[in-house]
Amino acid sequence: MANAVEAVVVSGMRARAQTFRIIAACAVAVAPACVSAEEGFDTEHIFGFMIGTDVGNPGERELQSQTTGRFGKGNGTYRALSQEVEIEVVPLPNFRIELGGNATLHDITGVPDIDDRRQFNFQGASLDLRYRLLDRERAPFGLTVAAELHGNRIDETSGAKGRMYGTDFALAFDRELVPNFVIGALNLIYQPEWARFEVAGLSEKSSTIGAAFAGLLRVRPDVLLGGEMRYFRQYEGIGLGEFSGQALFVGPTAYFQLSEKSRLTLSWSMQAWGRPAGSAANLDLVNFERHQARLVFGVNF
């Protein structure tokens, strides 16, 4: 009896294994056909914390909601949420303009060198300009130069009131590594910042440089999955003066084409390694956060 039961179990396992192999083979055979039916990638919005080289077609208009969360600053409790609403237009070929306004929520308790506060405020406004220099369909890779200018009345890290100005410069590169199936992107970043706080009239200048890489895989016609890796170095002064610290962030990204006119991007990054200046710590929680998350929803109109 025991031998008979054993024979039935073994036979069932073999049958299930054979079925799994057949399903896997069919999936592999069908996947390329599904992918080849696609029209390629539109990298304008598929990344979370990075940018692609596509800028849209002339006459396009989009409304975008971007929610960014930053959590963890060593000891104590640190939570900062930023909600930005943006309008994007493409007035000319290869040129995009984006206007945005944002509000911030801070919940900070017991964090060294940052005052405790729990507040919600209108933060400021931004202007984002992008120009595509190379189209990857006609060149070995895509290349876009971007500059985002922003003016704020609330410091994004501490929540302190004042006047903050800065510009985020970026060079974006991307290329289809496997046509219609895998896309890779590289961003080179320079971010000078100037701030003057209301309390005691203190002023600060800082600058950040960085490099970021992303790879996304098309798992369904309307779904992309992958990840982003970003490395930053922060300095005092806008001209890369005294070194302050460095951090490496890694995490997954997912993009969903909800409909012909709407989309959703989800991204999360964890500080995998970092070090503030003059410290042997394995993380830099002085200049950067432990976790960062972003949700972006957009719709054409």
Verbal overview:
- The chain has 301 residues and is mostly beta strands.
- The protein has 1 helix and 12 strands, in the order H-E-E-E-E-E-E-E-E-E-E-E-E.
- It has a single domain (38-300), classed as Beta Barrel (Lipocalin).
- It has one helix at 2-36; strands spanning 61-71, 77-92, 95-109, 117-134, 142-154, 161-178, 182-197, 203-220, 223-236, 243-257, 262-276, 291-300.
- Strands 1-2-3-4-5-6-7-8-9-10-11-12 form a 12-stranded antiparallel barrel.
- The longest helix has 35 residues, at 2-36.
SSE inventory with pairings:
Layout: H1 2-36, E1 61-71, E2 77-92, E3 95-109, E4 117-134, E5 142-154, E6 161-178, E7 182-197, E8 203-220, E9 223-236, E10 243-257, E11 262-276, E12 291-300
